[in-house]
Amino acid sequence: MIKDRLLQNLIDYFEIRKKNVQGGVESAEFSALLFQIYGYGMASAIDIVFVGLDDLKPKVNIIKVVDSLASKIDPEWKQHANERLNAKPASISKKY
User: By Cβ atoms counted within 10 A, which residue in 34, 52, 59, 95 is the most buried?
Assistant: First the structure.
C-alpha cells in the first residue's frame, strides 16, 4: 500500500539520521533539521500528488510523524529551530 511505503521510507531516512548522530558524524540539531526538511518535502509532495484523490491519500498526518521522530533525534529541536530563525541572518551555525 502507498501509505505503508511512504511511512517506511520516512522511517528508513530517520534511522540513517539517527545513526549519524550516534556515530558522531552529525550533531543532533543538524540531523533533525535534515530529517525535517526531507519529511516536510514528502508531506508537500503527497498533498500535490494526491490532490483530488482523498480515498488514496494517506490518512496519517505526515508533519506530526516527522516532528515526533525529529524529537527522537533532537529533543530540543523546537528551541534550536527558534534560535536558527531568530538569528540575523538565519543560520545553522552556532553563532547565535
Answer: 34
Q: What is the pTM of this model?
A: 0.84
In order, the DSSP letters of 52-87 are: T-TTTS--S-HHHHHHHHHHHH-TTHHHHHHHHHHS
Cβ neighbours of residue 62 under 8 Å, at least 6 residues apart?
Answer: 6, 10, 39, 42, 43, 46
Name the band, by pLDDT with cuts 50, 70 and 90, for residue 58: low
Rg (C-alpha) for the chain, rounded Å, is: 15
What span, in angstroms and rounded, lies between the C-alpha atoms of 60 and 64?
8
Return the biggest CA–CA distance within the chain. Answer: 47
Tell me how crowded residue 54 is: count the other CB atoms within 10 A of its CB: 8
In degrees, rounded to 5, the angle at the alpha carbon of residue 75 between the alpha carbons of residues 91 and 43 is: 70
